[in-house]
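Collaborator request log, item 7. Partner lab (contact: R.S.) asked for a structural prediction of Type II secretion system protein I to inform their binding assays.
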Amino acid sequence: MRGVEFNPCDEAGFTLIEVLAALSVFAIAALGLIHVSSENTHGARAIEERMLATIVADNEMTLTLVQRTPLEVGVSTGRTVVGGRDWEWRKTISTTPNPLIQQVKIEAWVYDEGFEGEQSVNVSLTAFKGKTS
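Returned to partner:
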């Protein structure tokens, strides 16, 4: 019977090149997953912001439409807190071709104290109200 000889080339295992290739494939896959997770977080934040802006606009629209006094044509603005954040809104009341109906448009966006210029509107609602005598 022959003795068993040790030959390092016969050992099972991975070479350094194979390990580096596997690590690079894993790193590329992990970066893709991180990107998808980041996009999901960004999307969820945008949905939350739009939902809160809709609440702000809905609240102001409701307050406007339940007024018993005639609405004055023009633009007014205001600020409110919803969801722990400051929001601004702009209410535009305008006439329509029918003199008995007025158009009410409410726009809402996140308040940014340091921002100069036109804000990016998150939501815009439009309704019509009949004039009361």
